Amino acid sequence: MKPAIYLASLVAALLMTACTSSRPSLPTVQAVDLDRYVGTWYEISHLPNFFQSQCASDTRATYRPDGKDIEVENQCRTESGKVEQIKGIAKAVEGSHGAKLRVSFFRPIYGDYWILDLDPDYRWVLVGEPSRKYAWILARTPVLDAETQAALLARAAALGFDRQAFVSTPHTGQPPSGSASR
């Protein structure tokens, strides 16, 4: 399946699950300073999903200011060593104080990206969406200490995510080269 189809399917799934979720509402952090949030975040662990199935290692997201929006660039390395990337846009949800973003890689379709827990120094973050099918633990460095990671997994479980389903993301330390756009 082509990467564009993966992502279009993802967004459709996100929209459908957000509309049909019967779970209690998902609380976010009170506010996020998006100027501090921009930059590179390394994926530490995630709930498996079909749109990242080609990613074997070195998954990261870079956020850059783009006027009043945020440019999003996601990258990962496949089993063959090829670097895949895709660019999109994120918009803060009005009234969320930056804690809820709507992200699109294929406008006009957007998916939820909610900041559920955030280090006061912006060193790590727990991100998810209301259906609780998708979640990520991200950090500013490719490695996060075990105690913090365990605390974030416990927080995810307390919010209704399947703690046991999270998988760790390996980082090889290889610089991204030979990237291909998705």
Main pleated-sheet profile: 8 strands, antiparallel, barrel
Structural class: alpha+beta
N-to-C series of helices and strands: HHEEEEEEEEHEE
Under CATH, the topology can be stated as Lipocalin
What does this structure look like?
The structure is a single chain. With 182 residues, this protein is an alpha+beta fold. The chain has a single domain, classed as Calycin beta-barrel core domain (Lipocalin), CATH 2.40.128.20. The protein has 3 helices and 10 strands; from the N terminus they run ααββββββββαββ. An 8-stranded antiparallel barrel has the order 1-2-3-4-5-6-7-8. 29% of the residues are buried.
Quick take:
This protein has helices at 3-20, 34-37, 146-158; strands at 39-46, 57-66, 69-77, 83-92, 100-106, 109-118, 124-128, 135-139, 167-168, 179-181. The protein is an alpha+beta fold. The protein has an eight-stranded antiparallel barrel with strand order 1-2-3-4-5-6-7-8.
Question: Mind sketching the topology for me?
Answer:
Elements: H1 3-20, H2 34-37, E1 39-46, E2 57-66, E3 69-77, E4 83-92, E5 100-106, E6 109-118, E7 124-128, E8 135-139, H3 146-158, E9 167-168, E10 179-181
Parallel strand pairs: 4-10
Antiparallel strand pairs: 1-2, 1-8, 1-9, 2-3, 3-4, 4-5, 5-6, 6-7, 7-8
Structural descriptors:
182 residues; alpha+beta; Lipocalin; 8-stranded antiparallel beta barrel; globular; disordered N terminus; disordered C terminus
